[in-house]
Design goal:
There is one protein chain. The protein has helices at 48-60, 128-140, and strands spanning 65-69, 74-83, 93-98, 105-108, 112-116. The protein is an alpha+beta fold and 154 residues long. The protein has a domain at 35-138: Roll (SH3 type barrels). It has a five-stranded antiparallel sheet with strand order 4-3-2-1-5, with helices on one face. Strand 1 and strand 2 form a beta hairpin.
C-alpha cells in the first residue's frame, strides 16, 4: 500500500467551530461552584469524619494552611496532595510545600491535632461571574478597550 497524499489528510473545520472573539455581553452565565470562605477558619477535628472533611477542604483551598501535629510542631504551607481513601487515619496523609523551605513533606492524618486556613485565598472573588460583573461596570462607566489585569503577586 503506497503513501497517502497529504491533501487527503487535511480536513476542514466547520465554520461554527472556528475561533471567534469573546463577547461578554452574550456570555451565558451559569451558576458555578460556590467556594466556602475558609480564610482564617479553624475547623473542629474531634472525630475521624471531621478530620477527613477538614483536610478535604484544605486540599481544595487556594491558600496556605497551618497544620499542628500532636507533638506540638507546626508547619505552614500549600497542601497540594492527599491520600484520603485509607481505612484508618494512619493510612491517610497530606503532602504540602512548606512556606519556609524548598521541599515536600508528608503528614499522616493521625498526627494532626489542629488545622488553620491561615493564608489568603488567592482565588477569592475571581470567578467568571465576578469578571463579567466588573466588565459590565467598566463598560457602563464608558470605558473603552476594557482589560482586566491580574493582581500583583505579594
Amino acid at each position: 500500500m503506497g503513501e497517502m497524499p497529504m491533501r487527503h489528510l487535511i480536513t476542514h473545520m466547520p465554520q461554527e467551530t472556528k475561533a471567534r472573539p469573546f463577547d461578554a455581553e452574550q456570555a451565558e452565565i451559569a451558576p458555578g461552584f460556590a467556594h466556602e470562605n475558609l480564610e482564617g477558619q479553624i475547623p473542629s477535628l474531634a472525630t475521624d469524619d471531621e478530620i477527613r472533611d477538614a483536610l478535604e477542604k484544605a486540599f481544595d483551598y487556594r491558600g496556605d494552611v497551618t497544620i499542628t501535629r500532636k507533638d506540638g510542631s507546626a508547619v505552614e504551607g500549600y497542601l497540594f496532595d492527599r491520600r484520603s481513601n485509607g481505612k484508618t487515619l494512619s493510612d491517610c496523609f497530606v503532602r504540602l510545600f512548606p512556606k519556609d523551605r524548598d521541599e515536600k513533606i508528608s503528614i499522616s492524618y493521625a498526627e494532626i491535632s489542629r488545622l488553620v486556613f491561615s493564608g489568603k485565598d488567592t482565588a477569592a472573588g475571581k470567578s467568571f461571574e465576578t469578571w463579567v460583573k466588573k466588565y459590565r461596570e467598566k463598560k457602563a462607566a464608558g470605558e473603552k478597550n476594557i482589560q482586566l489585569e491580574p493582581e500583583k503577586l505579594e
